[in-house]
UniProtKB/TrEMBL annotation:
<dbReference type="GO" id="GO:0017004">
    <property type="term" value="P:cytochrome complex assembly"/>
</dbReference>
<protein>
    <submittedName>
        <fullName>Cytochrome c biogenesis protein CcmG, thiol:disulfide interchange protein DsbE</fullName>
    </submittedName>
</protein>
<keyword id="KW-0676">Redox-active center</keyword>
<dbReference type="Pfam" id="PF08534">
    <property type="entry name" value="Redoxin"/>
</dbReference>
<keyword id="KW-0472">Membrane</keyword>
<dbReference type="InterPro" id="IPR013740">
    <property type="entry name" value="Redoxin"/>
</dbReference>
<dbReference type="InterPro" id="IPR013766">
    <property type="entry name" value="Thioredoxin_domain"/>
</dbReference>
<feature type="domain" description="Thioredoxin">
    <location>
        <begin position="39"/>
        <end position="181"/>
    </location>
</feature>
<keyword id="KW-1015">Disulfide bond</keyword>
<dbReference type="InterPro" id="IPR036249">
    <property type="entry name" value="Thioredoxin-like_sf"/>
</dbReference>
<keyword id="KW-0812">Transmembrane</keyword>
<keyword id="KW-1133">Transmembrane helix</keyword>
<dbReference type="InterPro" id="IPR050553">
    <property type="entry name" value="Thioredoxin_ResA/DsbE_sf"/>
</dbReference>
<dbReference type="InterPro" id="IPR004799">
    <property type="entry name" value="Periplasmic_diS_OxRdtase_DsbE"/>
</dbReference>
<comment type="similarity">
    <text>Belongs to the thioredoxin family. DsbE subfamily.</text>
</comment>
<dbReference type="GO" id="GO:0030288">
    <property type="term" value="C:outer membrane-bounded periplasmic space"/>
</dbReference>
<feature type="transmembrane region" description="Helical">
    <location>
        <begin position="9"/>
        <end position="30"/>
    </location>
</feature>
């Protein structure tokens, strides 16, 4: 007995779905653009006010991110990749090109202070995000993460993971310079 035409079409559905999934996985594996999109790009930074880490007099709030182009770096002393990028942050801070602010994520106060004492402190201001709530509002899901903020306090760029010299010079600083030129900084 021959199968009805509708039965053959129904039997093909799993094959078509498997083929589409295969194409999607193949594209995902070989796609050369490894940047992760952020829904916050172009939007104001989340409203927040964080206290300072121990030993510092200045916390960090969303109000501190208005009036000049700046960088916000989310870090922790227990984060190994944060150690990798810290020398570049310290070097960048030394140039005075752009203020760098830090959000210290779920860190013990003495560990954060020790980390900065050991590796250098590039931050103009640091806020202690002890429970991680503010970092979640920023869309942080892995450390470190670095954001470029425009003069109006909007997120213009997001870099996930530690950045190297190439990423700093070819991705992050061009955004900073463009915003500074647009804003007349």
């Amino acid at each position: 007995m021959a199968r009805p035409v509708g039965g053959r079409l129904l039997a093909m559905i799993p094959i078509v779905i498997a083929a589409l999934l295969g194409v999607a996985f193949y594209w995902g594996l070989w796609n050369k653009d490894d940047r992760l999109p952020s829904t916050l790009i172009g939007r104001p930074a989340p409203v927040f006010a964080l206290p300072p880490i121990e030993g510092r007099n200045d916390g960090l709030s969303s109000e501190d991110l208005r009036g000049e182009v700046s960088i916000v770096n989310v870090w922790a002393s227990w984060c190994v990749p944060c150690r990798v990028e810290m020398p570049l942050l310290v070097e960048l801070a030394g140039t005075g090109t752009v203020p760098i602010h830090g959000i210290n994520y779920k860190d013990a106060p003495d560990a954060a202070v020790g980390f900065l004492s050991e590796l250098g402190d590039p931050y103009t201001r640091i806020g202690a995000d002890r429970n991680g709530r503010v970092s979640i509002d920023w869309g942080v899901y892995g450390l470190p993460e670095t954001f470029v903020i425009d003069r109006k306090g909007r997120i213009a760029y997001k870099h996930v993971g530690p950045f190297d010299r190439r990423a700093l010079e070819e991705e992050i600083l061009p955004v900073v310079r463009r915003l500074q030129a647009e804003d007349g900084s």
